[in-house]
């Protein structure tokens, strides 16, 4: 792992554990075993490091979600694919996933919230597009795409968050049958 990668990894770990505002540049460079000029060379500032860390950690997750959305299928299958992508993103990098969740709930003017806001908006638009593409399936979906996107994303995040907090390492695995149940629990609200 090169110095740049070490800085990103250490920053993510520290930002996750303590929050962006509670972590100083010195603490980051000490954890990475480099000097302040090295951080400034690669990122320009602590904020630049935050932006780059979010970008790098989010890209793989985002690509998985986009791939899941591009697979052909009806609404149920598409939502199951997306739910699986979210869960796989969590499995692959629990710390980064939970860090993203914490940034969503940070103060509106905080650096963390400012950096994650475009990611959240992009994620929302993409999930909303699923419901737009399938609105002819159900008449009651028309005009409610925002509501459904928010509900689906929220259900996934909170299900994953609950499993993270309340289950041991071995119990964090979410099975295919649970993915099916999550999606169908969500859909029953649409079909009623």
Can you put this structure into words, describing what you see?
The chain is built from 9 helices and no strands. The chain is mainly α. The chain has one domain (54-191): Tetracycline Repressor, domain 2 (Orthogonal Bundle), CATH 1.10.357.10. It starts with a helix and ends with a helix. The relative contact order is 0.11. The mean pLDDT is 91. Residues 1-61 form the HTH tetR-type domain. Keywords: DNA-binding, Transcription, Transcription regulation. This is TetR/AcrR family transcriptional regulator. Residues 24-43 bind DNA.
Strand content: under 5%
Calculate the mean pLDDT score and round it: 91
Shape: elongated
N-to-C order of helices and strands:
HHHHHHHHH
- Into how many domains do the coordinates divide? 1
Number of helices: 9
CATH topology: Tetracycline Repressor, domain 2
Structural class: mainly alpha
Integer-rounded radius of gyration: 18 Å
| Biggest sheet statistics | none
Low-confidence stretches: none
Give the CATH superfamily.
Tetracycline Repressor, domain 2
The CATH C-level class name: Mainly Alpha
Query: What CATH architecture do you see?
Result: Orthogonal Bundle
Total beta-strand segments:
0
Q: Termini separation (Å)?
A: 52 Å
Helix content: over 70%
């Amino acid at each position: 792992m090169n110095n740049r990668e070490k800085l990103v990894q250490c920053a993510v770990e520290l930002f996750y554990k303590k929050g962006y505002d509670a972590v100083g540049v010195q603490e980051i460079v000490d954890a990475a075993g480099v000097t302040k000029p090295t951080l400034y060379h690669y990122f320009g500032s602590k904020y630049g490091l935050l932006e780059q860390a979010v970008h790098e950690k989010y890209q793989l997750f985002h690509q998985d979600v986009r791939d899941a959305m591009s697979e052909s299928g009806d609404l149920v299958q598409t939502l199951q694919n997306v739910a699986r992508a979210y869960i796989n993103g969590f499995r692959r990098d629990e710390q980064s996933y939970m860090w993203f969740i914490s940034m969503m709930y940070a103060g509106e003017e905080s650096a963390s919230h400012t950096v994650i806001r475009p990611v959240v908006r992009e994620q929302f638009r993409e999930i909303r597009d699923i419901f737009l593409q399938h609105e002819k399936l159900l008449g009651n979906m028309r005009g409610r795409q925002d509501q459904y996107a928010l509900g689906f994303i929220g259900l996934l995040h909170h299900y994953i968050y609950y499993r993270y907090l309340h289950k041991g390492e071995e119990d964090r695995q979410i099975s295919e049958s649970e993915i099916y149940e999550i999606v169908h629990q969500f859909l029953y609200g649409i079909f009623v």
